[in-house]
Amino acid sequence: MTIEIFARDKDETLNRALTVWLCRLSGLALFGMGLLYWTRLIGIYDGDLWRFDLMPVWWRVAAPALAVMYPVAGIGLWMTTSWGTVIWVLIAAIEGVMRMGFPHLFGAEPAIVGLHIFGLVLLAVLRIVSAFESRRRTSPRRV
To answer: What do you get for the CA distance between the two ends of the chain, in Å?
Structure first.
């Protein structure tokens, strides 16, 4: 009986550790993307349309929203809060609509959308496994 409890605890801690690592790595990546959007807005990078006053209207709408949402999601994921995941889902939806729905306006960047989907699917799998583990742990034992 004690070996079975130890095995369940070990599985649970492994799942929790993997979830925390995924959230922290994703949080750092999202925070970095937010910094890139901020450099785009304030004009540090010297490139085409890399300043707010030179951007077309569609970028003037999308860039500030993403510049705020990316770091907030990064901080939320670093703290492994549920609202960090919710904001990440919103970012993925916005980027998906921008990059896949309007590639002629925003540029087709399937790698960005693919990384969002990959990370969110991994997080969903880890959370589903955690839910099954907690359900198994709380269910009554049948002999």
So the answer is: 12
